[in-house]
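INFO batch 0412 | record 1 of 1 | parsing
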Amino acid sequence: MENVRTTARSSGVGGNGGLRNRCRTVGLAVASVLTATAAGFVVSPGLANAAVTGTVKAKTQRMTAASLKSQQDGWYNVGDKLNLVCSTHGQAVKGYFSFNIPNGGWDSLWYKVSDGRYVADVDIETGTLSAVAPDCPPAQQSPPQAASPAPPSQATLRWPLDSVRINQGFGVGGHPGIDLKADLNTPVFAAADGTVDFEGFGQNSSWMLQEAGICILIKHASIYTGYAHLTRTIINKGQKISKGQLIGYSGNTGYVTGPHLHFEVLPLSPNFHNGFNGRIDPAPYLR
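INFO prediction complete | emitting tokens
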């Protein structure tokens, strides 16, 4: 479960504390113009349908609207050349170029692609932080976004490790949780009181999946917490556990490149089409 908007994101600032230039390139796709003749269609090169293109820099969601809350319809992969039809502003997200964007790296610019889907500007190369395609007509604008659930009035979860170092945060490249640095067999603790909903290999859970390896899903009063890539668990399904109770040990099972702990939060009724497989940002819940 490493990397979901995934992934190997660049970070850093330029000399003298200034932002690094966004090294992007702009491509013009010279479209062909079709003219009807008695013999059929004649293709003649022209700029009548010239379109701005962008290059995908990190695997990113292919959405039905300018928001990760809309329906995801697959992925755009690194190196894909996208024909950018128009631009719009939607949900602010972080991604590949966040290191070079003010306001904490959040970017609300999206593009409608020639396939009818939307891609976030933050993950594609266009040569500038500004829009390079015309505004989408009102009929093509994204529908109003539902308000995000209000964060808890106070943090209710403890960190699942005694020593916390974040390898990768939520939302970067579509990442559906927080990856915490942990050597093999580091003790993992329950983030809050609850009941064990699942423990074992992720392929045996419709929520955790094979990527999670050995994992645990705990149901709390208003959310679930998930713990993935463990070496082993020491609790059982249906068992009531207390906040801070030892539940297992970190490892490198499932889809990983090295040992760490993947920690995630889900609502009691997850929206599995939110672009993060139902997961939500754990940060507001942690203290």
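INFO post-check: Residues 151 and 284 are 6 Å apart (CA to CA).
INFO record closed
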